[in-house]
Design goal:
With 137 residues, the protein is α+β, with helices and mostly antiparallel strands. 30% of the residues lie in helices and 16% in strands. The protein is flat. The chain binds flavin mononucleotide (FMN).
Length: 137
């Protein structure tokens, strides 16, 4: 795919400029998603092709692009004119937490699709969100 695309964007992190150590992959993922959204907005075709965390791919792309040791590629995004425009697929999955107030209304069509009850109880839920520090939405 990338071989035939007129453009490919390598989304990379510069580890020397990392503001919050350990978050580079998440930061770059957000950047990659924004690139995909912008490409779609411009009616272009684009796809995330994974590099990190596959060591062989990271090594290969680093060599190919001659990247310095501190720069790590997260993904390559080939961009071009889309060859096809498949219809969007609705993969929305609602969920209801059993005892309390987080309820997302379902858009599922069959009863089986309508609710996913998380396999947890209220204590586990509160513990996970550490009530004293985080507000539940
Ligand atoms: C983290 C991540 C890595 C991906 N890696 C690849 C990849 O290596 N090759 C590829 O063709 N698509 C890759 N994709 C794209 C997915 O296969 C898929 O096309 C994309 O998520 C859109 O899916 P959808 O249109 O079916 O919703 C990746 C997507 C994500 C989010």
């Amino acid at each position: 795919m990338v071989k035939y695309a007129p453009l490919a964007i390598a989304v990379c992190a510069d580890k020397n400029r990392e503001k919050f150590p350990g978050l580079w992959a998440l930061d770059c993922s957000a950047a990659a998603e924004n690139i995909l959204l912008e490409a779609t907005e411009r009616r272009l075709g684009a796809v995330w092709t994974a590099v990190y965390p596959f060591e062989e791919r990271v090594k290969g792309i680093k060599e190919l692009l001659n990247l310095p040791a501190n720069v790590i590629p997260l993904c390559i995004i080939p961009v071009g004119r889309p060859a096809e425009t498949p219809a969007p697929v609705d993969r929305f999955q609602s969920f209801v937490y059993p005892s309390r107030d987080v309820v997302i209304p379902s858009r599922g069509r069959s009863p089986r699709d309508q609710t996913f009850v998380a396999p947890t109880n209220e204590n586990a839920w509160d513990k996970a969100f550490n009530r004293n520090r985080l507000q539940r939405c």
